[in-house]
Amino acid sequence: MSKILIKNIGCLYTGKMDQPKLDANSILINDKIIEKIGNDLTDDEATVIDAKGTTVMPGLLDSHTHPVVGSWTPRQESMNWIEPYVRSGVTGLVSVGETHIPGKPKNAEGMRGLATTTKHTFTNVRPAKMKVYAGAYILHKDAVKEDFKRFKEMGCHNTGEIGLGSANTVETASQIVEWAKEAGIKVTIHRGGAYLHGSNFIDVDTIVALNPDVICHVSLGRVSSEEINRFFDETTSVVEVTRPQLGSMAQNKEVVAKALSRNEPHRVIVGNDCPSGFGLYPHGIWEMVTFFASSTDLDVGQAIACASGNTAAVFELENTGTIEENNFADLVICDAPLGSEYKDATDAIQNDVIPGISIVMIDGECVAKGDAVYTAAPKNAI
Question: Which one, 179, 235, 318, 333, has the greatest CB density within 10 A?
Answer without folding.
Answer: 333
